[in-house]
Amino acid sequence: MIKENQKILNRLLIIFDAVSIMLSLIIAWWIRFRSGWIYVESAHLSLREYVIPVVVIIPVYIIIYSFFRLYSPFRFKNIFEELFNIVKSNALGLLILVSMLYLLKEIDYSRYLLFIFSICSVLLTTIERITIRLILRRLRKKGYNLKHVLIVGFSDLTIEFIRSIERNKHWGYNIVGILDDNKKLGYKVKEKEVIGKNYDLEYYLDNKNIDEVFITLDIKEYEKLQWVIGICEKSGVRTQIIPDYYKYIPSKPYVEEVDGLPIINIRHVPLDHIIYKAFKRAVDIIGAFVALVLFSPIMLFTFMMIKTTSPGPVFFKQERVGLNRKSFNMYKFRSMHVQIDEEEKVQWTTKDDPRRTKFGTFIRKTSIDELPQLFNVLKGDMSLIGPRPERPYFVEKFKEEIPKYMIKHQVRPGITGWAQVNGWRGDTSIKKRIECDLYYIENWSLLLDVKILWFTIFRGFINKNAY
After folding, report:
1. Cα dihedral: 78, 79, 85, 86 (round 10)
2. What is the pTM of this model?
């Protein structure tokens, strides 16, 4: 729910920013040519001629705003840091706009207007951000849009963190309770209660609505840290550490400061960034449409062959677990004889599987059976490239057996992925597959997606492990 709220907020911010930039141009034009405050010597460009370059440059401004972290969550962000980033973003945006006008030889574009526009843009964006910040603070103080967090471990840092939460109600954190092996149940700090021992962590993550876990273990208990992190990652819950050893950790990009407290993000996920996420989604939609057009003759042929060679439906849908551990129906061309639901949910496909049809063996070997998943991509259930989704039965099984298995659900699942192009497909090592999935999640880039797509074309369509 919190993630969905943040997505909605970011989309609104992008719209508001675009409106602010356009409104700034209109105000600047009025001040320069219609207000009478500045002397107008001769004829000038129309409002439309001034608007067009700014419309073109708005996406660039949005990217610059994102680069300066103006779309990251407001909970911890210092207002003065944000305002400074607004000034820097607009300065860089103005520089790019002026450069574009120079290259287009737009010599009649008023320099006075550009100066007024930049000031108006900073002012309007600042007013917009302060207004949104105040609205969010008021909502959080009233108990809306809260993040429910669990604290593991009790130390001086725990007390300091709870005090920070109490001082900053606008952060919107609701502390469900504290888990600690050394304090008695019911022990309270600022009305926050010790509700269990460390071994109760898995129960609370599985049965309570926990959005994040903060680890504040005493330095004497650091031997428990690996176990705690393992439980959190098995459940797929985001985990943050508030350590007193942060000065010795070199990974500066992953450390944030919150009211004087260092917080280390356990895992860096590039696709958490709204611009990267939006860009990848746009590529998915365009790519899926293009692929459907290109493969439509093959899909039509497959449709006819399945219909004429095997009784039953042409398409096969199967429940899979995707982004944020949510289930969805994944589509395939049916390659097996019709099965009962219980058999289909728990049986793994093996070499020489007797359930396959003759034509099914061919389309599985060539991956043609996967083509209907392009519709899953258009629906938003999947991406063209990402970790392969699994059935709920096996997700529950593997989360207990494979460390960090649940981390794969922090990004959209894909039709193909880094594990598949490296040969970890079908009845192969799940552990190796997860290692590849984690590498993809932590090292995502457009270049890596292009590389996987290239390998899929030349390695992935026909694979010896595709049963």
Report:
1. 160
2. 0.56
